[in-house]
Amino acid sequence: MKEIKIESTLTVFDDFNELPKNIASLMEQAMEARLNAYAPYSQFLVGAAIALENGEVVTGSNQENASYPSGLCAERTAIYYAGAKYPGVAMKTMAIIAGSVKNKTTEPIPPCGACRQPLQNTK
Description:
single chain, alpha+beta, Cytidine Deaminase, domain 2, three-stranded antiparallel beta sheet, two-stranded antiparallel ribbon
């Protein structure tokens, strides 16, 4: 038997103006991607932007369908696109913006369990 340790680190900034320039740019791209979210059932809109080691940035938004709650989260949409378009290129940084149209919150919202798995398995 062997023990495997899996960790995730989230950096939460109190204000957009605190962000370093590269993170602010990535966050702006995540906000733009969020505009493409299709969430008629949950009303929970999410955008993600991933900076890759090769300098490219890929984005994703959550996409629901009539068999709700089946759908795809923004993080996985971006991760899978990055893997399909740039196989073998490592992810450097990911920015995520999320929130409900119905309920306003200022609390950080971490990726769901289904998204954490491919995040841990990226190179």
